[in-house]
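Reagents: none. Just compute today. histone acetyltransferase.
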Amino acid sequence: MPPSVINNEHASVIWPIQSFAVSNDFKSPRPASLLLDRANSEFGILYETEPGVSVMAQFLDTEEAVYFQVFKVRAACTRFNNTCKKVCVLMQHFQLDLHFTIVAHAAEFLQKLARTATKVSNLHFEVHEAVSKAAIERPNFNMEKEGYANQINQQWMAIPDETTSEWARIYKTGKCSDFTVIAGGRMFPVHRVLLCTRSQYFNAVCDGQFSVNLRDHVDYRIWDSANIVKETEERSITLPESDQTVSTMLQEIYEVYNSTTSSIFTSFALRREMEKDRVMMDLLALFVAFDKYNLEPIKQKATEAIIDRMTFIPDPFSIVDLAASIYDDNFFQNDRGLRKAIIAHVQMRLPTIMDDEAAWEEYSENKAVPKALHTHQRDMMDGAFGVLTPPVSPTKNNTLESPMVQPRHPRTCTRVGAKARLLNPVLPTIEPREAAPCTATTSMAPDVASMSTTPTTTPAALKTSQKPPTGPNVLEVVFGSLLVKPWYPSFYPEELVGRRVDRLYVCQWCFKYTTEEVKFLGHMNACPLRNDPPPGTPIYTASNYSLYEIDGEKHKLYAQNLSLFAKLFLDTKSVFYDVTTFLYYLLIAHKPEPSIPKPRFGDGPDEEEEATHGDDDNVGSAAKGQVVGFFSKEKMSWDNNNLACILVFPPWQKQGLGQILMGASYEMSRREERLGGPEKPLSDLGRIAYTHYWSQTLARTIINSPTKKTLTIHDLRDKTYIVPEDIIATLQAMDVLEQRRKGGADAVINKARVRMWAESNGVDVMKGPVDTEAFVVRDASRGVSEDG
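Predicted 3D structure written out:
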C-alpha cells in the first residue's frame, strides 16, 4: 500500500489504513486505503485489488460507498502522544474510526482534514484530544457520548447545493447575461464580468483587443482573428470545442455542479467501465480547454480530478490510451503534473499491461510512453544507476541494469563436485505466491528450448507478466558446477522455470538455463562456447584478465541471459533496458579462483585420475577463461555516463575485480575523450565502491605529480577523467584538504596527508587496477561497438 503523498501534486493524496469501523456497525474485513477527492473535498475508503487499481468500500446492506464530505464533518478526535494511530471522525449520523498503519499518517490526515475544512468554510469543525490513548482505542469509543462534539445540527447531503453559489443560480436562469458563447450549435448566455475576471483570453475577447492582448497567451494558428473581432462586436464568440466540453467548462466557471467533475465516490467509482472511459476523455478535453482559455485555477481542479480517478480504472488498455493522449505531441507542456502522474500509474500497472494483448500492442506502438517511463524511473531512483524500463515491443529483448557493486553479502557458493552425478536433480516447487514480471520475449524461447528436445513455450506465453516476489524465487543456482545461493528474485519467465524453483541450472559459458539436470548436462556437453571465448571483441588483456565488448544488439540472446543471471545478485533497484541500446563488457579470468571443473558424464575410474593430472580441458574455466563479472553502458548517453550497471559474480568477489571494471570504464572514457562517470544517483554500496576507486586514483595521481607543480581540480580532472564534483567530494572524504587561501583557491591539498592516507589504506601508488598499455588500440568509437 502506498505511503501518504500529501506533498506531491503529481499523485493522489492517499494513506494506507489497517482497518476502519463505522459506528460499531460495520468493520472492514481487511486493510484499506483512505483517498482524498481533492476536486470535491471528500474522503473515501477503498480497497486495492492489484497494484494501481482499487474499488470502493461499500456498506453491505445498502451498497453505498463509504465516504464523507469535509464540509459536513462535525469534529475529529485523536490522542497527540506520538503513539496513537487512531483518528475518529464524527459526522451527523455516524462516526468513522480510522486505524492508520503508522502514527505519522494519522497526524498527516488530521492536518489535511483541518486544512480542507478551512478551505470549504466549515466553521463548525473542531479537533479534540482524547483524555487517554486507552480511552480512544476502546472499540465502543463514542465521541458524542464522551462530549467530543459540538451541537451544530447539519444536514447530510450527497450532492452539493448549487444555490450556495449566487453565480450558479444566475447561470441556471440566464438572467442579466450580456454575452453569448457558441459551441456545437448551442448558445450559452454568459456574463462578461465573470468571464473577464476568470480568463485572460475572454478578457481580451470581450474588450475587443484580441489581436493586441492575447498574442502571448493563445496559439494564433488555430484562430481566425478577424472573425473573432467581428463576433466580439456582436457580443458573441464561437468556440471550436464540443458543446459538452464548453458546457462543462462554463459550469465550472460558474461553480455549477456537473457530472464530469462531481464526486469520485458517488458519481465515478461505481460506474461501468465504458462510462468511466467516457468521463476520463471528457476530463481530458476539459483540461485542454482550461489550458487554452487560461483558466488556471479550475485547470488545477481538472488535473486533480483526472489523477484521483486513475486508481478506479481497472482496464489496462484504458490506462495506456490515457497515457498516449497525455503524451501526444500536441498536448500542452504546462500539464500541472499530469504526465508524471499517468506515467507513474503506467509503471504500477505494467505487469497487467503486458498481460493484456490490446494494451500491450497500444503501449508498444507508442514510442513516447515507453520513453517517458524510462525517464520517470531514472528520476525516481534514490540509490540506483539504472531504471526499470519495459521492453519497447513484445519481440525485443530486455535486460536489467543495476548500480550495485559487489553487494555486501557473505560468499555463499560451494563446490558441487567434479562429477555431474553429484548434482541431485530437484523438481521445481511452485508455491501460491505472486510471481515476478516476465521480461522474456520471443527470442528467449529458442534460447531456453535449446537445452530441451522440444520447445516449451509459445510467443504469446512469453508476454505473460509476473509480479516480483519479496524474496528469491530461485533458491539455488548451479553455475557450471558451483552451487550459489541467490540474494534477490530474478525475472526468469514463469512458463519456463515456474514461480518458485528449488534449483536452477545455468550454463557457465552462455548463461542459458533450465530446471532439469539431464537437459543441463546435455547442453554443457554440447555448448557452442564450451571451447570458445565469449562472443564479442577482446579489448583488453593483461596478466590473468581480459575484457570483451559485446554489443547488445548483435548478441541479444547472450546479453539477456547474462542479465537474468545477474539479477539474482542485484537488489530490487535493478532495472531493465532494451539490450540493443547497451554495450556489455565482460571480465574474463583465465585462472579464476575458485575455478569451475567441467561436469563429468561417466562413472569410469579414470575420471578422477584425469582431473588430478592437470588437464586444462577438464577445468571448465581454464581453457578460454571464465566470465567473473561485467559492466554495461549506454551506447549513447546524454549525460556522458561511462557505466550503467556493474557486478562481480559472488564466487569471485572480494578480489578487487570491481576496481578493474571501474578502471576500465574510466580508461575508455579517456581514450574516447569523454568526461563522465557512473550513472547517478549512486546507491549506498555503489558510492562506497566508487569512493574507494576515486580516492585511490586521486592519491596515486597526486603523489606521482612533480613536487613543485601546483595541481588544480581541472588538472586532476584531465589526468583521471573523474568529474570535478566527484573529485571534490572524494578529497573531502579523504580529509586531505586544508581550508586556507592560496593562489585564489579557498582550500589546498595537503600532499603529506595524501601520503599518510595512501600508506594507512595500503594503496599501491605506482600501479593502478588496469594496465593502460594493455588495451587494444582502435579508433574511439564513442560507445559504438566494432564487433565484427
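The longest strand covers residues 13-22.
Action item: order primers for follow-up constructs.
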